Amino acid sequence: MDFRFGIGVMAVKSAARFTEKVRRFADQGYDVLHVPDHIGAPAPFPVMMAAADAANIRVGTFVLNAAFYKPALLARDAVALDQLSEGRLELGLGTGYVREEFEAAEMPYPSAGERVDHLRHITTYLKRVAPSIPILIAGNGDRVLRIAAQHADIIGFTGGGLPTAENPDPMAERVEFVRAAAGDRIGDLEFNLAITAVPTDDSGVPDLSLTRAYFTDATDEQLLAMPTVLQGSPAEIADTLRQQRERYGTTYYTVQDYHGDYFAEVIKELR
Predict the structure, then answer these.
(1) What residue numbers bound the domain in which 93 lies?
(2) The CATH number of the domain where 9 resides is what?
(3) Tens of pLDDT along 31-90?
(4) Residue 51's closest CA among 28, 83, 25?
(5) How many independent structural domains does the chain possess?
(6) Checking phi first, is residue 87 left (phi over 0); if not, alpha (psi -120 to 50) or beta?
(7) Rounded to the nearest 10 degrees, what angle do helices 170-182 and 142-151 cross at?
(8) Cα radius of gyration (the chain)
(9) Are 7 and 260 contacting, i.e. CB atoms less than 8 angstroms apart?
(10) Non-local CB neighbours of 176 within 8 Å, separated by 6+ positions
(11) Three-state DSSP class for 264?
(12) What's the predicted TM-score (pTM) here?
């Protein structure tokens, strides 16, 4: 399967600057413009519509907090955006996990189990009423990955956790879990990996600050061993992604906007 590449945008300064950024990413070979769903960040649907208007690029959420939405209302917005973008929407869903965001939205904070149940409910509803819109589900736990394997089109992996002596490749274990849960669907699934660290200069050394935010006690050696952390020259990173495609089946990679220019050189190596 050919590679695809997404790029996440966290902030919108102005319409003109956003339009310029989206067009640059499209010209650099990125396939999908991703926006997050956090209180304090730009609203996902207006940003995706602006991106779809700015350039011939697919748009998606990475990822919507499913607990914030009722299925019928989310389906209404998703179908409208998909129609107006001429079928370029990829809808990413997650359970939501930041308690403070629920409080800021004046919403109750459901238990982990309730949030997973709602993710299943909203996913099955969307697949029934809007089956042509691809759904990405991102997560790491068994229940979320089982829902993704059984109902989504794209599985968003987060790297599986820190490598340890007992489990030197957690990502491989998560991939095998999904393969088993998907059964006969496995051939129809696309595997995505969210990259958290990429070099931004000729040193080839990645900034580990985003990765470390999730693994505060990890050593640099542990972080650098994660599949979500890329290091080296563009040619070396391209080789790493080819190896990951062989090992994990991952063909769809998402980076952050501040990785964009450096990673664009990786895209050139792979196309």
Answers:
(1) 4-270
(2) 3.20.20.30
(3) 999 999 999 999 999 999 999 999 999 999 999 999 999 999 999 999 999 999 999 999
(4) 25
(5) 1
(6) left
(7) 50
(8) 18
(9) yes
(10) none
(11) helix
(12) 0.96
